[in-house]
Amino acid sequence: MATGPTTDRPRWLSIPAAASWVSLSAKTIRRRIAAGDLRAYRCGKTIRVKTDDLEAMMRPVPSAKDW
User: Fold this and answer.
1) Is residue 43 part of a domain?
2) Could you tell me the end-to-end alpha-carbon distance of the chain, in angstroms, rounded to an integer?
3) In the chain, N or C terminus with fewer CB closer than 10 Å?
4) Is residue 1 part of a domain?
């Protein structure tokens, strides 16, 4: 019986869980959604965010080596 790889990473997160996942406030997550920087999905009355979209929102910070 073959199954896909198992990970501890959830696929969908609520706004408070997404905020905790990336160490931001829920208010910041809501702002990023409103600005269009982060895609969100409605599931009934709740709003969910994909962990892949959270990771895609992050940008590397340039260092002195990048110059």
Assistant:
1) yes
2) 51
3) N
4) no
